[in-house]
Specification:
about 200 residues, mainly beta, five-stranded antiparallel β-sheet, four-stranded antiparallel β-sheet, globular
Length: about 200
Amino acid sequence: MRATANTLFLFVCMIILWGCNQSSTNKGARTGFDSDKDLVAQNDSVALYIQVVDSAKDEYDIPEVALWIKNKTTEEEIKLYQTTRPDWHCWYMGDGNKFYPVPIDSILVTSRVTIYNYDPLQLIVEGCPDMRNEFSYFIDVDKRKAWYVPANQGYIGSTSEEGYMIFQSYRYVSDPDIAGRYTFLQIFDETGNMVDSLDLEHLHL
């Protein structure tokens, strides 16, 4: 009798575990539009997804990806662009004081997306194509226009009052006896012009 009870108990436990596993599998499964895409940013109106189109070939390569926008109200899905894999690696990308216009289909990398402005929808997309420098792009979605941001360490936020974009770059210390790198902060307005900066080289000299 005791053996029968133990067998029945084990059977019930197995049924419960099987049901839990099935539930977890169903919850984790994705179907439809986002089955092969990763959500990277969203607001009340839109959701942005990255889709890997061509995987990285090795540890030194990067994937080609597509950036998709889904309208939450209409359910319309639009492919904004697909990245172009670079055939070069850069040791150092210098910084600059203004955004440079580039074709939207020439963007090299997209692994992070930030919604900078809701209306009109404007994005900052970033990634590292060469294992050293962060590449950043400013995108006006409605106009389908893109600009390269001359900052090699990426976007770190915006000013609380003005809403200006803050990027950072690394530079090399000018004194050869000291060497090393230091931080250079860049503040850009909505037109892509640098309105202020902070150079921290003096902390190393």
